[in-house]
Specification:
The protein is of the alpha/beta class. It contains ten helices and 13 strands. The strands form three sheets. The protein has a seven-stranded mixed beta sheet with strand order 9-8-7-10-11-13-12, sandwiched between helices. It has a four-stranded antiparallel beta sheet with strand order 3-4-5-6, with helices on one face. Strands 1-2 form a two-stranded antiparallel sheet. It is globular and about 55 Å long. The chain starts with a strand and ends with a helix.
């Protein structure tokens, strides 16, 4: 008998992956956590039945949520990561010797513990001495911070359930307050393709624009995310990612599988239908 994991993307579309076995399943205080093993994508993590990452394509997401900001301001020293309990974003950040401190805020301790047990490929650097893990609500945590972080990465789940508060005007305003003068906010920006995802993307973009003068959106291809077409948001009041010093980043010698400085420029060239959605979000 064949076993399949299926995730609905819309009422009329779903993605299915054949699995060898289910490695873990539990209902935590906040959500259902499952880990599966598949012949095509290796191990993968789902929360409340929604795909979070697979071993095969996680590098795309984690490199692009991290290196675009780091190349835009290589002087970043203090970083706040909200969400990211799987450890992939932290793994990419620890590759920079210039970063002095990484605070990771994850609401669900069990996501971290399950990732450490079953997903060592992403969770491998959570024990870096520069990393401090806080098990707290990201919205509550950031309220008390002021001009503390050079970079905030919001590596959240979708805008409902435990991650809902991370898509509000209050949250983005608090992130703005918590950033230094040249601070950068990067957030996973949902997909522009399916109608409900596009509306969530527009809401987030509209709210971020209330606080930042430089608001750009860049795109990436992630095969296991809805439609495969995914967006990230880049916001700052001082740093424009289109002015990144490619030569300086390349001199660091960081080996990546997806990100490069040519792609850095190209990923901000977005399709017309996405431009129109962003303009309508005003």
């Amino acid at each position: 008998m064949e076993l399949w994991f299926s995730e609905p993307h819309t009422p009329d579309v779903k993605m299915s992956i054949r699995i060898n076995k289910q490695l873990h399943s539990e209902q935590s205080e906040y959500q259902r956590i499952d880990v599966f093993e598949s012949p095509e994508f290796g191990r993968f993590l789902t929360l409340d039945g929604l795909m979070m990452l697979t071993e095969k394509d996680e590098f795309i997401y984690h490199e692009m949520i991290t290196h675009v900001a780091m190349a835009s301001n290589p002087d970043i020293k203090n970083v706040l990561v909200i969400g990211a309990g799987d450890g992939g974003t932290v793994r990419e950040l620890t590759r920079y010797d210039t970063i002095q401190n990484i605070d990771m805020v994850e609401i669900d301790k069990r996501v971290v513990e399950v990732s450490l047990e079953y997903l060592p490929v992403t969770a491998c650097r959570l024990d870096d001495p520069r990393v401090r893990i806080f098990y707290d609500d990201g919205l509550r945590f950031v309220r008390s911070k002021e001009k503390q972080y050079d970079l905030i990465i919001v590596d959240s789940t979708d805008p409902f359930g435990p991650g809902e508060g991370l898509f509000t005007s209050e949250f983005y305003g608090n992130c703005h307050k918590a950033l230094t003068e040249k601070g950068i906010l990067v957030n996973q920006h949902e997909s522009p393709y399916y109608a409900d995802d596009a509306k969530a993307m527009q809401r987030a973009h509209k709210r971020i624009r209330e606080f930042f003068s430089i608001c750009r959106v860049y795109q990436v291809h992630i095969p296991t995310y809805p439609s495969g077409h995914w967006l990230f948001g880049f916001a700052s009041n001082a740093v424009d990612p289109l002015e990144a010093d490619a030569e300086r980043w390349n001199s660091l010698g960081i080996k990546t599988k997806y990100y490069n400085t040519d792609l850095h420029k190209g990923c901000f060239a977005i399709p017309n239908y996405v431009k129109e959605l962003l303009e309508d979000a005003k």
